[in-house]
Specification:
This protein starts with 20 loop residues before the first helix and ends in a 9-residue tail after the last strand. The chain has helices at about 20-30, 80, 175-180, 225-230, 250-260, 280-285, 320-335, 390-395; strands at about 40, 55, 65, 70-75, 85-90, 105-110, 120-125, 130-135, 135-140, 150-155, 165, 185-190, 195-200, 205, 220, 235-245, 265-270, 290, 295, 305, 310-315, 350, 365-375, 380-385, 400-405, 415-420. With about 425 residues, the chain is an alpha/beta fold. The strands form 7 sheets. It has a 6-stranded mixed beta sheet with strand order 7-4-6-5-9-8, with no helix packed on it. Helix content is about 20%, strand content about 30%. The model is unreliable at about 1-5 (pLDDT under 50). The protein binds adenosine monophosphate and magnesium ion (MG). Magnesium ion binds near residues 201, 202, 246 and 317.
């Protein structure tokens, strides 16, 4: 299937020296739309996928009025005249329904989920009722005080026929899939998964593995494994290209080849403007740059562009910067390309259990935050105490990101700060 529309264009151009965080998000929201065609999947494969058609209820859920408890169904209006004493004229188990009206002023033994017979409207719980036998016929004494309609689930009380249950662009969660199943729908249209080429760059990088001993100056490639994990939280297909050396020809040739085969290339490293930063030079030769030099910390050199119809995203090499940029921007870019409705992660106000002085104004900072509890039990957040952007420990020990706005020049202990839990980005809680 062909792509549903041409990727992007140069309308990303802007005259700012450094783009602010909110501007970047606005651009992603307004200028990136679905490029993927749709496919049909069964509900069993739909978790986490992005819906490509609205789901409209073809019928009521539940279909018929049914019992919420095991007990006795009766007509509330008959209660006074029979003094709560009903003959039991039928027995209806779950999955069964009586089509014809019940004999006048009788009750039905009924079980949870069974359709309530025509004419009856109220159900008394079996433990509140007293069965009797009179002249070999079963009777039931129903207690007074029940409201009309008690313990009866109404047809359509969950979903009414004709209701739009889900919109195109919604990301399906298990409960959404339950809702679709409840309508009797087994196959749905979703956006195809983005095919992503994952590339690490750097002469110093060594793939982890048995028997590999790093020489001085070498580091293990952590970004490939980390980004692969982060990509698993969005519906994509990842091909790991491994590590490319800082070699201009190799990088250019690999990017050119990958651009022809993938919907998106995600690189890390080599994204600054140094002599050994060949990734951006290759992008400039092969395609266009749309975004680069963001007014944020960490992650300033993150770059986005395109090579032909292939989206290019270049992350900084530092693992912390790559991680943060992925969460803040790459995830949103990927979701937009796959037709996902726009939703920003929620920020929660939490009291700072730390202070910072001399923050540079004009850039937004994202600190690694560790949640704690004040004496009264209210939440507090501490920042990971070391700032280095290579410290994976800070990512591991933290619960989310503390967002410090551009205008701030510091934080006082006790001040309320914005905290975004990692779970808002789909990362499992510890
Ligand atoms: P670069 O963006 O290439 O200038 O790299 C910045 C820093 O991140 C350097 O210290 C690199 O060694 C480190 N780095 C780059 N790529 C990776 C990677 N895949 N895994 C771990 N560290 C990396
Ligand atoms: Mg490098």
């Amino acid at each position: 299937m062909s792509k549903s529309r041409k990727l992007l264009n140069d309308c990303f151009l802007h005259d700012k020296d450094r783009l602010r965080h909110d501007d970047v998000l606005q651009m992603i929201k307004q200028r990136i739309g679905p490029i993927m065609a749709t496919e049909t999947v069964s509900l069993a494969d739909a978790n986490g996928r992005i819906l490509a058609e609205p789901i409209v209820a073809p019928r009521n859920v539940p279909l018929s009025d049914n019992a919420a408890v095991d007990g006795y169904a009766y007509c509330h209006a008959d209660f006074e005249s029979v003094g709560g004493w009903f003959e039991v004229a039928d027995r209806i188990a779950a999955g069964h329904a009586r089509q014809t009206p019940m004999p006048k002023q009788t009750a039905a033994r009924i079980f949870t989920g069974a359709a309530v017979p025509p004419g009856l409207d109220t159900i008394a719980m079996q433990e509140d009722c007293e069965p009797h036998v009179q002249n070999d016929r079963p009777f039931i004494a129903i207690p007074p005080g029940l409201k009309a309609g008690a313990n009866c689930r109404k047809s359509g009380e969950d979903v009414l026929e004709g209701t739009t249950v889900l919109l195109s662009g919604e990301r399906l969660r298990p409960q959404d899939i339950a809702a679709i199943a409840s309508l009797g729908i087994a196959e749905i249209a979703v956006f195809q998964k983005l095919k992503i080429a994952l590339i690490s760059t750097g002469d110093e990088l060594l793939r982890p593995g048995a028997g590999t001993t790093p020489l001085p100056g070498q580091v293990f490639d952590t970004n490939s494994a980390m980004l692969k994990g982060l990509l698993e939280m969005v519906p994509v297909k990842v091909t790991d290209f491994g590590v490319l050396a800082d070699d201009a020809d190799l990088i250019r040739n690999t990017l050119a080849q990958a651009a022809g085969e993938f919907d998106m290339i995600l690189t890390s490293g080599g994204a600054s403007r140094g002599d050994e930063d060949h990734v951006i030079m290759a992008l400039d030769e092969l395609g266009q740059r749309h975004l680069w030099q963001l007014a944020i910390k960490p992650g300033r050199p993150m770059t986005m562009g395109q090579i032909g119809d292939c989206v290019f995203v270049g992350l900084p090499g530092n693992p912390v910067a790559a991680f943060v940029c992925f969460l803040l921007y790459v995830r949103q870019i990927i979701l937009r390309l796959q037709g996902c409705a726009w939703r920003l992660p929620s920020r929660f106000p939490v009291a700072a259990n730390f202070g910072i002085k001399n923050k540079k104004p004009d850039r937004r900072e994202f600190l690694r935050g560790i949640l704690g509890q004040a004496e009264g039990g209210s939440l507090t957040v501490t920042k990971f105490d070391r700032d280095g952007s290579g410290l994976i420990t800070g990512l591991r020990e933290s619960d989310g990101l503390i967002e410090i706005p551009e205008a701030a020049t510091g934080i006082h202990p006790g001040e309320i700060v914005d905290f975004i839990p990692f779970s808002e980005f789909g990362i499992l809680p510890r």
